[in-house]
Amino acid sequence: LFPAYDEPELKATFVIGIDRPADYQPSLANTDIERREVLANGYIREIFYPTPRMSTYLVAFLISEFEAAASSLNGTNEFGIYTRPDAKNQSDYAFDFGRKVVDALSSYFGINYYSTNSHLRLDHVALVDFSAGAMENWGLIKYRESLLLYVPGQSTPYFKYRVAQIMAHETTHTWFGSLVTCHWWSNTWLNEGFANYFQDYITSFVDPSVGAGNQLVIGSVYSAYDADNSPTSPPITNNAVNSPSEISGHFGTITYQKAGSVIRMMHHLIQDEAFRYGLNYYLTLNSFNSGYPDKLYEGLHQGVQRYNTLSSYPNNNISDIMNSWISQAGHPVVNVTIDYSTEIVTLTQKRYYVNSSISSNETYKIPITYTTQRAPDFENTRPAFILEDQTLTFMIFNISREHSWVIFNLQETGLYRVNYDDHSWSIIISALKGNDSAIIHPLNRAKIINDLFALVYADEVPFSTLSSALDYLPLEPEYTGWFAALRGFSKIWHFYLGDNEVLPHVEHFILQHLESGISRLGYEERSTDSLEDQRNRMQILEFACKLEHTGCVERTVELFRALRQNGTEVAPSLRPVVYCTGLRHGSAEDYDFLWNRMVNTNLANEVWVIGDALGCTSDESRIRSYLVSMTVENSPIRTQDLTVPLASVLRAYGNLHIVMDSLKSNYTLWSSIYPSMDTVLNTVASALHTEADFNEFETFLSECTVCTEATKTSGRNALVQARAATAWANSHKADILKVIRSNSIMAAPSVIVMIIGLAILIFKEL
């Protein structure tokens, strides 16, 4: 369209002119239309007002038949949602949330969105197929339909949260990305870290019903941990980013979720007034220019100075604290040892590695928060001190008499795991399983479980400690605690796929723990459900049905048959598990029914839900057909969703041979349609579990004459990870089996007690 240096620090103003067919809708661009001219050839020329001074990657325009599903004009403040004509009725939530979130962000940052340019628009466009997911072009933000359009009563609750989250993320980029842009992609966290943080932080105020506040932890923090646990994990600021492939590779979990988690940690450290003041200072001083880490730190320093919020932490400043997290790879685990006889607490930090044979000597400036059983306060997340050295000793008074618990990292506001000495773990786990477990904050209950799984994998604690802690689940009413447990269950279950000796015991162990959640939430939506209740029921039932829980399978198959035979619609929050289980226990005709439903629906997120379920079919011919369907012309599988069929099919270990056959036969075709074959090979490698699997995959890579060397290297790296997972599983299965068998023996008397208790209750009622 025009020659340009596509580098973020190079900025200009742009005047856009478009000639469009007269029967199309008016064009859209970053700014309002200044004038129109009717041309002699049946076209209309539209000239737009000059844009703000901005980077070239933010320029955007739209020539289409899309209509304004909703728009508002408040003086000169233009806001709209644009969709294809037959999706106009799906934009109400986006319109309502989008207006509220731009107002909330304008207020928080102290810079009104529309004040940056008198002709700036704010339009959100739902595109039929968009590989990027969403893109923050200034004034004209683009989305996949499934990430902008949500219909109550038809869309799953997950998509309500996702629409809010993504709209908040992209709107935040107006300030962090558009108004102030990272000078180079090595510091893309200055754009993406803030967008990642505020996507949930601001959403928690604009629409509390979607549970975004908890997602800050179980979404971003947990993802950051997983991406940051190996010696090859890069730092957030990565100066080795120069080539297009390196730039693309830098847009990942480290620069999004980890950076967002560090920003959240700093927010809690310096407190809200100083944080807001510092961000306003940074944004105001650098408007229409480039951002650098040092400029951000200077802004936060100004906030700290104004509100005196670091005075309790002598010899510490924002720059040093931030650099210990931004410029240094990894994250720490803090080991807590408590001598209850002397009330002396010793903290020791070290970098966390999932591979226990690796060690290094990094230290981080860690904001330490804690509370005690004697005076529990999980709401005060202002750190007591900063752990700067490898080891620190201090006293906590009045804990010796009753050996009361001490819990660190309140609400997981710090980016660090916590490991306690054996006695302290015993005290905490007893409290977790006791009558007062609700005193412990839901995010800390989740943290205990999530950390224990990670510490088991790193050989820091025995599986028996984790197993004991998991016995608290019957007391857990919250989505967050179950989320932590289920992601841990999923990983350990995945480790033992292909191991017929261990897998049945692991599945029985997991199902025992799921039973209480199923009993609490049931199989149907309730009028009293919150959105998080619905998501909790969904995650528990999905796993239970996958492991063939009898009640779950019977009820979901019943709901699927009622849908197919009688047209009785399934509640949106139950559709993923009903569709998948219905196909797994169904026929080829059931697959065809759901395929046709996908082809004919007008709702993009329903297309995604069905597409994700089609791989559950037990009919091998339909599985092969599904893998072929993504390669044909005019496929209902959109380009943006090409990995969905592959991931869906691979969720059943028994389908691995089908995928390997297709990969070998169709590699050239797949490489022509998939944006990245690295992603494909990584997905396949993650499904490998046995030596035979590994050998087949290695042979394929060695004999593949059309694979690039870079793709082969990526595939072999993924194979190394798969082998490591299986090696860990094999080396630990004796201990795990011992604990699981012991747990099963102990569970039987509990069931008898429950039955006797129920009989007594019934007798009393009579």
TrEMBL record:
The chain crosses the membrane at residues 745-763. It is a lipid-anchor; GPI-anchor. Its cofactor is Zn(2+). This is Aminopeptidase. The active site is at residue 170. One of its GO terms (biological process) is peptide catabolic process. Residues 405-722 form the ERAP1-like C-terminal domain. Zn(2+) binds at residues 169, 173, 192. Its main location: membrane. GO terms for molecular function: metalloaminopeptidase activity; peptide binding; zinc ion binding. InterPro entries: Aminopeptidase_N-like_N, Aminopeptidase_N-like_N_sf, ERAP1-like_C_dom, M1_APN-typ, Peptidase_M1, Peptidase_M1_aminopeptidases, Peptidase_M1_dom, Peptidase_M4/M1_CTD_sf. The record marks 256 as: Transition state stabilizer. It is an enzyme of class 3 (hydrolase). Its EC number is 3.4.11.-.
